[in-house]
Amino acid sequence: MNDDTGAQRPQRNIQRFGRRTMLRGAALGAAAPLIPAAASATTASAPTSSALTSSPTTASDEAGRAAPAAGSASFRWLGTSGWRIDVDDRTVLFDPYITRFKTGLFDGAFNPGTKLEFDPDLVREHIGRPEIVLVSHSHWDHIADVPYIAKTTGARIVGTETTFHLLVAFGVDPEQISVVKGGEVLDFGGITVEVVSSLHSRNKRHSYFAPGTLNAPPAAAPRSIGDLPEGDTLAFQVTAGSAGPSAFLMGASDFAERAVQGLTPDLAMIAVPSSTATSRYVPRLLRALGRPGVVVPVHWDNFEEPLSKLPRHDPAMDLDGFATQVHQETPTTRIVIPDYRTTFGGDMRPRTL
Ligand SMILES: [Zn+2]
Prior knowledge:
Layout: H1 16-19, E1 34-36, E2 73-77, E3 83-87, E4 90-94, H2 120-127, E5 130-134, H3 140-143, H4 146-153, E6 156-159, H5 161-169, E7 177-179, E8 185-187, E9 191-199, E10 233-240, E11 246-249, E12 254-255, H6 257-260, E13 267-271, H7 281-288, E14 294-298, H8 319-329, E15 334-337, E16 343-345
Helix pairs in contact: 7-8
The structure holds zinc ion.
């Protein structure tokens, strides 16, 4: 998760993104530096943030690198920090959390004793036939559906030692899990996965929910969300083929600056912070990444609403402020606000199927 309890959630009413009408086709001109894919059919308020109305630029301008070719890769947001990436007929999942059960987190009554659950039919609907599943950390909103996916698809799971022990406790075959630390560059023959040592996000008290690591399986299979410690956090850079695109994938809104330096992804899926506890998060990250041409904010949605609905903006996440900071640091970067229903091409432009 990207925050700790509902108690820390401000009651501010930030709805500009959620309620703006940005008709997808109309927003797709190359001149738009920010492309919200989410469309609301019922409201019509003009964008107000300076980041959203800036002068026409494209991702190939001088400050950002050239926009990647669409290639054969496609990207589907699974909500929270999750992605389904398809490269030709091969599928990679990152932090797939599809079941999205209620914990009280968004109602001001967070219950760490909430029982884990998963919805097999719903999960199957979204995952395709994954070959690789990358897990950033072991909080429930990243790992809760992974045991089912691992057991039913046989996919290779890549994650921390803590993720390994938890999945084994859930009954996943240990041979199916690759433990990584950060620094590994894994060659899957046409898909390259670089593992990046990373950090978990912090709330305004500079702490976070359920820290801790496991060096051995827990005594019993985890039953509640409080049984799933963070277990250190990873980021990943996935590169399709030799020409890309390459996508930097985050599961939480902090990072190890020197581990990120020089990655230069085409696309950066960046977790929106829930506090200002991490100093200069956005500019430091963008510079370390080499000012990617496309930034896709993630982990800003209410992850207890079903994926069948439009994303609901978590009011704790200052998405407008995030976009403004990105724009200030790299004015030519294209910011793409994803939704749950769009398949994006390798350039993060909606793909017509
Ligand atoms: Zn977390």
